[in-house]
Amino acid sequence: MIGLVYKDCMTLKKQLTTLLMFLLAYGALTVAGVFDVSILGALVTVMGMTIPMSSVALDDAARWDRYAVATPAGRRGVVAGKYVFTALVIVVSSIFAVLLMVGLSLAGLSKQTLTENLVVALSCAAVTLLLNAVILPFLLKYGAEKARVISMTVFVVIFGGALLLENLWDNGMVLPEIPAGLVQALPVLFCSLAVGAFVVSYVISLGIYNRKEF
């Protein structure tokens, strides 16, 4: 499995480097006042969504799966490799974004406090993990091309719903009041939900992949 993760890292090394450079570029634009610091958290979501999909797309193009399932890693190793690689991309990009956010906050170049920026980064990482928990089973079952439509649908539904709620809130919609203690615990609860969903997604993907014919 470690070899499969390493293969994905080497195959997508150029793309990973490019996206990390984008993070640096957007960090510079944030310093210039073009963007808010929260844009760095959004880029974590972009990286966490596009890199795993690119990995599966390259495997599909090379018909890699037919060979990979015959290796000692087997089907379980292939599925585990994709999930570990996805989690690794999210963690590394989140750490990179957090370091930039911390630097900008300490330099006084952020409108938000350091704590608020960390919550944004953590929330974006959790959202990305949750989105991948939904999409990865479809990627492994149908391949990148067919799953692309599903991923776009999930993305539009979630973020469209968030924008709709924000619009309703701005227009005077009254939402139920959430207890202060629950509000403080929400980041931890949401992250726990995302991790749990990712684990459940792995089990589902393993079942799908074990029945897949090549």
TrEMBL record:
The keyword Transmembrane applies. The chain crosses the membrane at residues 20-44, 83-106, 118-140, 147-165, 185-209. It comes from the Bacteria. InterPro entries: ABC2_memb-like. Pfam families: ABC2_membrane_5. Keywords: Membrane, Transmembrane, Transmembrane helix. The keyword Cytoplasm does not apply. This is ABC-2 transporter permease. It comes from Candidatus Avoscillospira avistercoris.
